[in-house]
Amino acid sequence: KKIRKPLKVTIPAGVDNGISVRVAGFGEPGKNGGPRGDLLVGLQVDSHPIFQRQDYDIFSTVPISFADAAWRGYQDPDTGWRDHTDNPSWYTDRYTYQIKGRGVPSRRNKNLRGDHYVTLVVQVPEKLNNEQKELLRKFDDAMKGKYKPEESEGKKKKSFKEKS
Q: Which in 7, 48, 76, 134 has the greatest CB count within 10 A?
């Protein structure tokens, strides 16, 4: 006689494809009235649209605006990634940031965890209205000659001749 009932199975953190979880006492009945065997549940880990896994490390690509890249004030709600003071003064396109210890936990050692690598992709708008175009023109005019980091910090580099 088959009995159907819901079964709660705890899946340990850090599992990968092909791992089986043993559920004691839920297998076939034993011979001659013996105890039931164990149920083995095979696991298949689905892919995720944002996060990719490689061993214990997680990789993600996050689109950010030009303003977020310039301000460094970005925080992604999906990854929990935040700006840190040791980052460069602005983010460039395809800037990759490592978040230590935020990857997949090891199944064998609970103190070991992979890292999370977030790659920021600066989004450039495809269509701008007249107001946006004018604001960008004003921004560009304000930035003329100020693209070099040493000038934007108010420090002018001495030429080789001035140093002598």
A: 76
